[in-house]
Amino acid sequence: MVAAHPCTSLDASHGARLARGTVIRPMSLRGTRHSLASTCGRRQVVAAAAPGSGDSSAEQLRLENERLREALANRLDAMAPDKARALVEQHRRLRASAGLGGPAPIAAQGTAAPQTVEQGTAPANGSSNRSEQGGSRPDAAQGPGSAGPPSNSGSSRWAAMADAKPSSGSQSSSSGGSPAGPQPSTSAPRQPAAAGQQGGASEQASGRPGPGAAAIKVSREAEIAAANKEVEGHDPKALSKGRESWLYFTVPEKPVAGANCVVYFNRAQSEPLRNSGRLQLHAKYNTWELAAPEGDRVDMQHDGRIGRAEGLDYYSARLAVPEEAFEINWVVSNGDGAFDNNFSQNYVMPVRGPVTRDMWIDSAAERAEVAWRQKKAEEEERAKTEAAAAAAAKLEDDQRRAEEAVAQLKNEYAAWQKGASKQEVGRWRMVPASARPGSMVKIQYNRLSGPLNWAVPEGESLVLRIGHNNWQAPQDVKMARSAASAAPRPVSAQPPPPAAGAAPAAAGAAAPAAAPAEEPKEEVKEEWWEALVSVPKDAATLNFVVFLQQQCDNNERRDFKALVDLPSGKTVESWADAMLAEIRASITAKREAEEAEQAEKERQRLALRRAAQAKAEAVRRKQMKHVLFTVPEVPQAGQDVTVYYNPQNGALPGRQRIFIKGGWNRWRHPKAYGPLEMTPPKVGDHFQVTLRAPKDAYYLDFVFTDALDGGQYDSNLGLDFHIPVAGSVVEEPPLHVVHVAVEMAPICKVGGLGDVVTSLGRAVQDQGHQVEVILPRYDFFQASPLLGGTSYETEFDYGGTKVFVTTCMVEGLRCFFIEPRNGMFSGAVYQGNNDAGRFDFFSRAALEFLLRSGRQPDILHCHDWSTADVAKAYWTEYQSYGLWKPNVVFTIHNMDFGATKLGEAAHHSQRFTTVSPSYAFEIGGHPAIAPNAGKLWGVRNGIDIDIWDPETDIFLPRGYTPDTVVEGKAAAREELRKRVNLNGWGDKPMVGVVSRLTKQKGTHLIAHSVFRTIDRGGQFVLLGSAPDPKIQGEFDALKNSYGGQDAAFCFAYDEPLSHLIYAACDIILVPSMFEPCGLTQLIAMRYGAIPVVRQTGGLKDTVFDVDNDKSRAAWELEGSTDWVADNVDATNGFSFEGTDDGALDYALNRALDAYYNDRAWFHSLQKRVMLQDWSWNKPAHDYIELYYAALKS
């Protein structure tokens, strides 16, 4: 008995593991440590209560026989139909040959679907290879019976199963010797009888003899009544005599399902609780899965009838045992953090009733499905309620905006109409001359009257840009030559005399056009253009200008303003008030259209992401196939799956016997299997075994071994093998991951670390997990437009100062900001020598926040030297004092800084990573890493494809896709040349560099590339700056030498310009001396720029040379082992190995040659690289696998 955190006892999955005998770390809260010396080795003591008025020995024997018969029948039900019938027939023949009479053999009530291999369940006290992940929080108490199956008629499903017992007596046989009763069904598994179903019907359907259901029901009722009578009539004082040294006993001795029971606990014999003034019983049932009707804690009372004495101090609590129970799981606490949990093993008492452990485990899928459907129904109802509330709030906001618009109409009407007119003679006019709200009107414009009086190019036309009420809702409308282009001249008030001989005008005929009173001295030049426009219903004026190509007539910067008359009989006030409903409807329609458009974009984005994830999963399966594969390729829940394993390509080469041992749902499912011997191959090298996936399985888990007991294992390098299973009736519970970091894009990004924190967090969250980030609250956040809606979370005293914690959403992730009031995080992110102290304080304050706020994440993910202290501080200062649940994953982004801290974090982490496989290999031998290299994994970074998306990028002149890459990059190239003053003449390849200018980035090769690009007739663009003044001086000189019409140097940090460079350039150069991962080459490919890189670190893992890496590219990106046979070309760039100018020229010249010599092929390469998936889909999957591996450590 040790003081432990309550979750050691209350967490369902923890409890289940403890019941099976798996040992976990004992937990203790600060200030609740207790000595174990006087209690070590003491076993549970279960005392027998005084004999009551129970069943007689004969009745007990009869009941046990009935239960045995029922258990055997259930076993038959689980068998394949042919096996079940064979066993029944064999049993009948044996009895007949022996001359035995009595009941006919037990027959199955139904048949389950056939299983090639029978899967066992974990024994009650056996060991289990399961992850310690999972389970509910201790404070998430379930309602009475919520973990079990629902009951709709007052009696539980389990009671209904008990009612469906076979009748006694033997079956009559037909003349043919076969049983006359119904035979076992071969079409569907046996279904339990509905609550209240008559026993006779069950007996008839069962087809097997046995005691009548009514008799069993009466027996059960008698057993429950006897237990309740014993509880009500027992004498606590008498029962306690002679039990002074006992720890607990129960009345009745073995609790009965469906009856009451009393638990007596001797406080004097409990080391952790001996001096506690309060005791609480924490009980659940069936490996902590079934909630107690009384709740998860019951106050225990001292029974005055039992006197206190030395070693005698009994407290008691009454429980109502559910009918579904087969065992009680319990611990006792003082209600304030100290627990007696039987040395972390918890207390377990068997329950007598109709449900067995096997029955409970066998029905796990059914219970899980019921719970899942109930959860989904609740979520749907909650979503409907929230959606209705959100819709109402939006409509309320629409109404507010409409009222504001009406008020603006009234207040601004006069100002909007000031200077407006109905025409400007010879310049523009309206037809009809008077425009009213909601009408149609032609705007006619005389092109020759203003600055657009030059010849209109062939195929071109004028464009009318028109808005209303001071340029609200502007739009462009194409104009056409007016039929009245030869505009009428000034006219006389009198019509001209009729022509000689003209017939008189018919009645009602139009009068002839009036002739001018006199000819003007000069003819006015006119060429009228017109556009038909709709006058908005809330218009007081129309604002417009006219374009011809890039030239604009804006009325000498005053714009044109056309007057709109009020509707007939209306005042401004009455007109505006009458517009309220229409304005609101217009606002609502526009909002709903925007929401629909956004929803469609999100649907398409999600579809593309799911397709990329599916392809990544397919590639993983192909890459595993030489070691193992399954048939079907994607296992289905509730169906058979055959696992094939080739030990020659795994960790067990040369073995003649192979065994598989596994489970489901990342080892959290109650059913396990194995070790099962696999069938040796007749052809090839793959051993095989067939399993039946439970209905509630979403992962198939296994390892391989070469012996039934012990032996050598192939556990996939410690990750185990996990195959996704489709069609599960339940969903995988999410992980809770908390990143602790000092950078995060875009709010406090300095380098790639900030990108990784944001993008990895979003990608893992996108796969259904909960991700949060803890950051320092830097002073510059106060001026950040990216940090809106920050709210107070909590505060606490720590490290000699008050620490405030605030929170908000950043890029879809919940972020918490640590703000000490000692000014520690004023200024820049990195400040120099005092950074170690600042960030160590932050690391511990982050842990303190998690402890104080009661958060228990599954994974703490810390990054680089700046938060490396999280790993050590957690295990040495927090894990034993309440922050008990997390395990630690640590990522090294750059080995060049803080090697000592990196080594400490590697030691204290359960898994640690770096940002590419090649960089992991390069640093594996470092003295700080080597002692823990077995825990090191290289996982390449990805890019956030929502942020880096050329189709929607707002910094580009036009969006483009892989199919329009040529046109899109041409537009971007034209815009970039204007932006940085490059010559736009000729067809020149453009080479770009976006980089910090440091020695690591290969500055000498960057300088050489300027010369080589211009020498080959290309253009060069550089964006970046040097922190070292010497290097910056060298590049200033380079700019003076080469800057001009073919080379541009931008020494700044300019995010929008970087997007434009990636889109405009044909080639992006990354000649790093070392590169842990690198994002530049990934972004370049996303924008259709071909990378030219030096083969190092992540550059080698992501760029595959078009001439030299066809096999490697096909394997890594497509899972192909024969690129020729599979017709796969996944290469995507040009690479070199050396560090001198000649090495760079080898790759850069080949890229330029490809551009000049085969433009069509070069464009196809640009399309290919855009189609490749360099997102976080695959890296996020790898990290999730590492998170689960860390939880097992």
Automatic annotation (TrEMBL):
Renumbered residue ranges of the record's region Disordered: 98-215, 481-525
Keyword Coiled coil: yes
Enzyme nomenclature, EC number: 2.4.1.21
Location of the Carbohydrate binding module family domain: 258-352, 438-565, 638-726
SUPFAM superfamilies per the UniProt record, alphabetical: UDP-Glycosyltransferase/glycogen phosphorylase (SSF53756)
Gene Ontology MF term list: alpha-1,4-glucan glucosyltransferase (ADP-glucose donor) activity; alpha-1,4-glucan glucosyltransferase (UDP-glucose donor) activity; starch binding
Thylakoid in keyword set: no
Functional pathway: Glycan biosynthesis; starch biosynthesis
Record key words, sorted: Coiled coil, Glycosyltransferase, Starch biosynthesis, Transferase
Residue spans of biased composition, Polar residues class: 112-134
Catalyzed reactions per annotation: [(1->4)-alpha-D-glucosyl](n) + ADP-alpha-D-glucose = [(1->4)-alpha-D-glucosyl](n+1) + ADP + H(+)
GO BP term, pick one: starch biosynthetic process
Biased composition (Low complexity): 138-156, 166-177, 183-208, 481-492, 500-517
Top-level class of the enzyme under EC nomenclature: transferase
Coiled coil segments of this chain: 388-419, 584-616
Family: Belongs to the glycosyltransferase 1 family. Bacterial/plant glycogen synthase subfamily.
Name of this chain's protein: starch synthase
